[in-house]
UniProtKB/TrEMBL annotation:
Alphabetical keyword list: Transferase
Protein name in the entry: Glutathione S-transferase
Protein source organism: Rhodobacter xanthinilyticus
Phylogenetic placement of the source organism: Bacteria, Pseudomonadati, Pseudomonadota, Alphaproteobacteria, Rhodobacterales
Cross-referenced PANTHER family: MALEYLACETOACETATE ISOMERASE
Keyword Transferase set for record: yes
GO BP annotation list: glutathione metabolic process; L-phenylalanine catabolic process
Protein's UniProt keywords contain Metal-binding: no
MF term (GO), any: glutathione transferase activity
Annotated ranges, domain GST N-terminal: 1-84
Pfam families registered for this protein in UniProt: GST_N_2 (PF13409)
């Protein structure tokens, strides 16, 4: 048995995003099990990962259950040192762990006023002083990491590491709620929003179902600040392909993209592609192949 990761709604569960990114960025194989928040389905999922009481929860190959994203990060780093979850430099590694730990335990005002919602972006969320203080602290931490260790790449420590997984939902909140963070962090926010795994996670969240009322706010909405999706629409078959680009199974659900119809093995495969076609290498390879053979 390999790793099994329990997560909640992708659009809203910030800790689930952190845990999933640890696997997605490193290529460590994992089976993902999902449950819809505030539903019996979610309670059933957690019951299978007891005594963990929150997501993400991880079942190790020997059957051991662990909760809490920090524990998951350290366990994966210990078991898979070759993937480099933490910076190689000892000082950078110590600071990265510090930042992840402070993110894990702090910033309650930001979390409360701006819960992660990858389905919408707002023009202005009227952040109170407590949120502005959280943002000031985030700026201090990010500036310190970038100034000392950020050479060689757009991430906090130059190259991506587990600390960036912990701050991915923070970047999404700053962008989604249009929070005042300063132009000096534009490149870091852009790196988070354009990161291929983050785009795929968001696309899957958009495909998962209806909005969760708990996360709805009455502020003026605006387009999502990340990459604009290429236009596509759901349609009927037949398609240029007979096998789903993701599973290889026979197709049953279809979309039109750039004048051609493509098929998928279920509505979720189609809808996650509709949400952001360019985020999916398997689909774009199918598109290129169909164009080259037309």
């Amino acid at each position: 048995m390999g790793y099994q990761l329990a997560i909640g709604d992708r659009s809203y569960s910030s800790w689930s995003l952190r845990g999933w990114l640890l696997f997605a960025r490193t290529g460590i194989p994992v089976t993902v099990l999902t449950g819809r928040l505030y539903s019996p389905d979610f309670n059933d999922l957690l019951s299978r990962f007891a005594p963990a009481r929150l997501v993400p929860a991880l079942r190790l190959p020997d059957g051991t259950i662990i909760g809490e994203t920090l524990a998951i990060a350290e366990t994966l780093a210990e078991r898979h040192p070759e993937v480099g979850l933490w910076p190689a430099d000892p000082s950078a590694r110590a600071v990265a762990r510090w930042l992840a730990a402070e993110m894990h335990s702090g910033f309650s005002a930001l979390r409360s006023h701006c819960p992660m919602n990858l389905r919408v972006s707002y023009v202005d969320c009227a952040p109170p002083d407590e949120v502005l203080l959280d943002l000031a602290r985030i700026k201090t931490l990010w500036s310190m990491a970038r100034a000392r260790f950020g050479a060689g790449g757009p991430w906090l420590f130059g190259q991506w590491c587990a600390a960036d997984a912990f701050f991915a939902p923070v970047a999404a909140r700053i962008a989604g709620y249009n929070l005042p963070i300063g132009a000096e962090f534009d490149s870091y926010i852009e790196a988070q929003l354009t990161e291929p795994n983050f785009r795929r996670w968001r696309a899957m969240g958009l495909a998962e179902g209806q909005d969760q009322p708990f996360y709805r706010r009455d502020w003026q909405a605006r387009p999502w600040p990340g990459p604009a999706p290429l236009p596509a629409r759901a349609t009927e078959g037949p398609s240029v392909n007979t096998a789903c680009p993701y599973s290889g199974k026979p197709v049953s659900d279809f979309l039109e993209f750039d004048g051609r119809v493509y098929g998928f093995c279920n509505p979720f495969c189609r809808d996650k592609t509709l949400a952001d076609p360019a985020a999916w290498p398997q689909f774009m390879a199918l598109v290129r192949d169909s164009v080259n053979h037309s």
